[in-house]
Design goal:
The chain is of the alpha+beta class. The longest helix has 18 residues, at 501-518. The protein has helices at residues 48-57, 118-129, 138-142, 182-191, 196-199, 201-204, 253-262, 276-285, 310-313, 315-323, 327-335, 364-373, 403-418, 430-440, 460-463, 486-497, 501-518; strands at 6-9, 28-33, 62-64, 70-72, 86-90, 96-103, 149-154, 159-164, 216-222, 226-231, 244-249, 299-305, 340-341, 386-387, 390-391, 393-397, 422-425, 446-452. A six-stranded mixed β-sheet has the order 13-1-12-18-16-17, with helices on one face. Strands 2-11-10-9 form a four-stranded mixed β-sheet, sandwiched between helices.
Length: 519
């Protein structure tokens, strides 16, 4: 993978301010976020703030609880080979595969009162398997891995059998199979399947009744600004506590901080709110006013390279750019030392993590030597490297308005210029960066952003060749690097199917070693 440096996001924040005086019962909640979703369709991208909002309105079929245990949410119970709700069989290729039976919650209903049934399940699979669906998890629907869904059979209105193309170790995990309402979305899809991703009801009218089935429903959206949620009258579970939730987006970290200080917002989530070091600074300035929860997560900050660029296809350049940066000093000076410097795409808390991989310290002399070897020679002043008359320069992009990332960009640019590399900052709104630029692979060189992994979750959607977004698959998939490695593809297959603990862990460790070597 073309990532050259990672910082593990170690803190998730909760910063409730004083309750609004007009709401003595604390029944309304205003949440601040620093980005706004470019779409509310649950399948078309994985922007963290969108998934954060949708978790209140349409939780996934299965999910991880706070102790990292896989549990059912929209389903009744996880299928299990031991009790016969899952079984192995021989596929058309002569290899074993798994069929598993899921049962939907009996009282589950969309917020217009229409029951959630297997019609929704079958339609959602139909869309996902359409080549131009634009779904982000292309491997789940259109891939050829063990985890890929081959077919779904409806047994009745509430029970269905999922058959995989192989026998994945985590066959019970159906987290990324996100259903949509057939009674609303099917007419849109049938009218023009190629354009469905642009005409989905989730974007045409995200507050339309019938799009959600969770404890809350999205009741109003101001594009680029705010989202309001109200309790879903069709919700079958415990009644939600708040009578109204407002999620307000702010264009930059400074206005977000001001809104918190003024009491305009009550709460900031670490997934899309205030930078961790800023939150801690506020807490020091206003002791006792804010409650802060700090928890380690599986998120990380990293930089992706566009490997379509000949400059970045040379691993010596990628290694040089990492060696040129003093990450320890950046972490201390900008982030109060709260981050953990990464050597892998896996967080140290994850049981599959290994530190037995290539590590890169701060060595500008070695960085310069590698650039020389790659043909990028320094000018007479020792700066402004070029090769055959082409100057070594590139653009660095991140989500605009995020002060933490902007400070990090400035530090990175300064270090790189010390070894003769010219860097230009070219930030974009999150909806543009993730919804267009990275997906389409146009007009970008490097990008700084975060990934949120699930415990032991396969990184196939980020690193598999089949997950590269292309025009042919309507730019589905999340391998924005366009990294194609037969070795990594093989290791990803082992991660998915080698269920013996020792062999599975070996595959994970080899994948991390390859990642660290190739950066």
């Amino acid at each position: 993978m073309g990532v050259f440096t990672r910082w593990l996001l170690m803190f998730a924040l909760c910063l409730p301010a004083a309750a609004h005086a007009a709401d003595p019962g604390h029944k309304t909640l205003t949440i601040g976020i620093s980005q706004f979703p470019n779409s509310f369709n649950p399948n078309t991208d994985s922007l963290a703030v969108k998934q954060y909002i949708l978790a209140m309105a349409r939780p996934d079929m299965t999910t991880f609880d706070k102790d990292w245990h896989l549990i059912c949410y929209l389903c009744v119970a996880l299928p299990n080979i031991a009790d016969g709700t899952a079984h192995t069989e021989t596929g058309p290729d002569g290899k074993p595969r798994i069929a598993e039976t899921f049962t939907l919650q009996p009282h589950a209903a969309w917020d217009d009162g229409v029951p959630v049934t297997t019609k929704d399940v079958l339609f959602s699979l139909k869309v996902g398997q359409y080549p131009k669906s634009g779904y982000s998890d292309v491997e789940l629907y259109q891939g050829d891995s063990a985890d890929t869904i081959d077919s779904i059979e409806a047994l009745d209105d509430k029970r269905f059998v999922v058959t995989r193309k192989g026998a994945p170790c985590d066959y019970q995990n159906l987290n990324n199979f996100r259903i949509v309402p057939a009674h609303l979305e099917q007419p849109v899809f049938d009218a023009d399947p190629d354009m469905y991703r642009l005409h989905t009801r989730y974007d045409a009218d995200p507050s339309e009744r019938g799009l959600y089935y969770g404890p809350y429903r999205i009741s109003h959206v101001e594009r680029g600004s705010s989202v309001e949620l109200m309790p879903n009258p069709a919700w079958w579970g415990k009644a939600p506590y708040f009578t109204r939730i407002r999620i307000q987006a702010f264009e930059n970290s400074a206005t977000l901080q001001s809104a918190l200080a003024s009491g305009e917002i009550d709460y900031l989530p670490g997934e899309g709110g205030m930078p961790e070091n800023v939150a801690l600074t506020i807490a020091r300035h206003y002791p006792g006013r804010y409650h802060i929860e700090i928890k380690p997560t599986l998120a990380d900050q990293h930089i992706d390279f566009d490997l379509q660029d000949r400059m970045f296809r040379d691993v010596r350049v990628r290694r040089a750019l990492l060696l040129a940066v003093d990450r320890f000093t950046i972490n201390t000076a900008i982030f109060d030392g709260i981050y953990q410097l990464q050597t892998s795409f896996i967080a140290p808390r994850d049981p599959v993590f290994t530190d037995q991989v290539a590590a890169y310290g701060y060595d500008p002399a070695q960085a310069a030597s590698l650039l020389d070897q790659a043909g990028w020679k320094a000018g007479p002043d020792g700066m402004r490297r070029d090769r055959d008359g082409t100057v070594l320069t590139f653009h660095l992009a991140t989500t605009s308005g995020d002060r933490r990332r902007e400070e990090l960009e400035q530090a990175l640019a300064w270090y790189w210029r010390q070894v003769g590399v010219d860097v230009h900052i070219a930030n974009q709104p999150a909806r543009i960066l993730f919804g267009q630029t990275l997906k389409h692979g146009q007009s970008w060189d490097t990008a700084l952003y975060s990934w949120m992994m699930s415990p032991g979750g396969s990184p196939r959607s980020q690193y598999a060749t089949a997950s590269i977004p292309t025009e042919a698959n309507a730019y589905s998939g999340e391998n924005f690097l366009r990294w194609s490695s037969p070795v990594m593809d093989g290791l990803l297959n082992d991660i998915d199917t080698a269920c013996q603990p020792d062999r599975n862990l070996e595959a994970w460790h080899k994948a991390q070693a390859l990642y660290a070597d190739q950066l």
